[in-house]
Amino acid sequence: MMYKVTIGHEKSKPFINIYIDNKRYRFWNGKSIDTDLDCKDNPELLKSAFELKLMKGWRPKRKVKQLVKSAKTVKEAIKKSIQDKIDNNYSLRYIKDAERILKLWNRYEIDKGLKNLAIEQLELQHLKEFVIRPIWSPKTQLTIKSTLSALLNEFKPNLIREVKLKKPQSSMHKPITEISSKIEELKQFNTNLHLCCLMTYGCLLRPHREIRELTWGDFSEDLNHIHLSGERNKSGRNRIVPVPSYIRELLVKGEPSHNIFSGKPQPYNEDYFKSLWSRFKKQSKSLETGQTLYSFRHTGAIDIFKRTGSLTKLQKAMGHSSINVSLTYLRGLEVAELTEDDMPLL
Question: How far apart are CA 1 and CA 55, in angstroms?
Answer without folding.
Answer: 11
